[in-house]
Amino acid sequence: MAEERKxxxxxxxxxxxxxxxxxxxxxxxxxxxxxxxxGYLHIGHAKAICINFETALKYGGSxxxxxxxxxPTTEDTxxxxxxxxxxxxxxxxxxxxxxxxxxxxGQLYDFAVKLIKKGLAYVDDSTPEEIANMKGTPSEPGKDxxxxxxxxxxxxxxxxxxxxxxxxxxxxxxxxxxxxxxPNMLMRDPIIYRIKKExxxxxxxxxxxxPMYDFAHGQSDxxxxxxxxxxxxxxxxxxxxYDWFIEKLEIFPSRQKEFARMNVxxxxxxxxxxxxxxxxxxxxxxxxxxxxxxxxxxxRGYPAQAIRVFCDKAGVAKRENTIEIxxxxxxxxxxxxxxAIRAMVVLDPVKVIITNYPEDxxxxxxxxxxxxxxNAGNRVLTFGRELYIEREDFMENAPPKYFxxxxxxxxxxxxxxxxxxxxxxxxxxxxxxTIYATYYADSKSGEDVSGIKPKGTLHWVSATDALSCEIxxxxxxxxxxxxTFDENIDFLEFYNNESLxxxxxxxxxxxxxxxxxxxxxQFLRQGYFCTDADxxxxxxxxxxxxxLKESFSKEVRK
RNA sequence: UGACCCAUGGUGUAAUGGUAACACUCCGGUUUUUGGUACCGUCAUUCUAGGUUCGAGUCCUAGUGGGUCAACCA
Length: 558
Known about the structure:
By secondary structure, this protein is α/β, with parallel strands linked by helices. The chain folds into 3 domains: about 20-260, Rossmann fold (3-Layer(aba) Sandwich); about 270-340 and about 470-545, CATH 2.40.240.10; about 345-460, CATH 2.40.240.10. About 25% of the residues lie in helices and about 25% in strands. Strands 12-25-26-27-23-24-13 form a 7-stranded mixed β-sheet, with helices on one face. Strands 21-18-19-20-14-17-22 form a 7-stranded mixed β-sheet, with no helix packed on it. A 4-stranded antiparallel β-sheet has the order 4-5-6-7, with helices on one face. Strand 2 (about 60-65), helix 3 and strand 3 (about 100) form a beta-alpha-beta unit. Helix 7 (about 215-225) crosses helix 8 (about 240-250). The longest helix has 16 residues, at about 45-60. It starts with 10 loop residues before the first helix and ends with a helix. The chain binds one RNA strand through helix 5, strand 6, strand 11, helix 12 and strand 21.
């Protein structure tokens, strides 16, 4: 008998379930993701994408992708492509072809004419300054424009002439006739059409007037039959206007519901600030692995599934929130632990010579590709007399709980033998040059009869077989969780100069020689890494996605 | 001197008038040929004051605190 588990719903799902129960729209659910094609998608968009697509999916509905391209000045086809790529990469499928608000310019124009005929819109000849001055302030009502009382016929004629290009940019606008005394600034006769004699990325030079957001978004929702228009909280003041247009135009009643957008520690989503990072060369482009862009996270090695799980776990509500970066990293590790191929790479190598191992001998050893996944198979490692281990895995005068290599002690080499450290060579500056050890021939992995149980296990590579590679160690972009917490301090003050450290002397096991860009690995005891697109056949580059959880370093800090 | 939205552990999110829970973090432990994983455990929560009610995190009022709104941007 299945235990009945009460599943908790977020407030949007509750609304939808009530709608379904009451038979609204015959239970049909259609959402939309409406990006403006004027920039790259970031973590905040990922959240909006997840909410819109997953909510629809959950209730057997679907989601439209609609480009909100009503401002020809800022928009470009370049972004139309990257946005689609990012959504697909996240694993979502929109309904049919991508849609464009610009496809509705004709209908939108007709809607405006309808409004004029109902006496609900008028052409205003005021200058932008005059309009701003008449707008009032949040605590003072606005004043009616002297043009508000124009006749329907005159408005009709002027609006048509605006469309025909008879007037200069900025000389006239079409405004909705709502209420200049409304406490809601957006209801104070909002501008709904402006003159812009500019080339549009899709409609070319057909139009020289373009609708504003408020006169395009809701109507586009309505035209498409969107049932639930899910957007972030800052649009809440637009809702009365959204509803007003639908009511006056007598069109399909889409409804807007607002959720709080998601903030994440150490990430910023301001387009202006991200652009600043790019322009100042503090990151290497929009897809730099430190960037909170979807393309950046992809290059960093964050799996799409991890980002989706993260957005789910962050939840949906209406209060301001900042999600800890810990949660994102936990989701990334959880996913990668299941899927990433294991490999051994020594980031900061120091040589070990096994003095009782024959000089000309090598052995093939087998290693699991992923202990979490029996189907991942295994691979061959070459073992020999000379190896590299991690410099930090050796300590001459080790503290009691140090389980790694130290003189006189035993330590296991992963998938290989147990070593007994016998001594070291140092240079004039006291730096360790070479570590000497003996091995226990009967301690081979899988057939160990030595009876020795070392506390620690180290990763290693064969000195003769290993290949050099480049490792890019990425860390958080900022030194504080919220670099914008004080508007008087430039956020670049908190740029983390150590957000990227390049290691040029790392040694990788030879199985990684032909690694393809995008492949994700767990480098044993180091973290998760992925092959970067900058890799060439003779020079493999790895990005550190995220480190492993590390309890030893915490121990040391005590 | 306006309107609107919000307030639950460190961080998020549930609890839909009836025992405040889940995840992540932190801390501790067991297992481990990754100081990883897995598993177990500990600490810790309803902004304040009134009111309604047998009973309030939930409903009402006021206060406090936070956020948002005055682009021919979206």
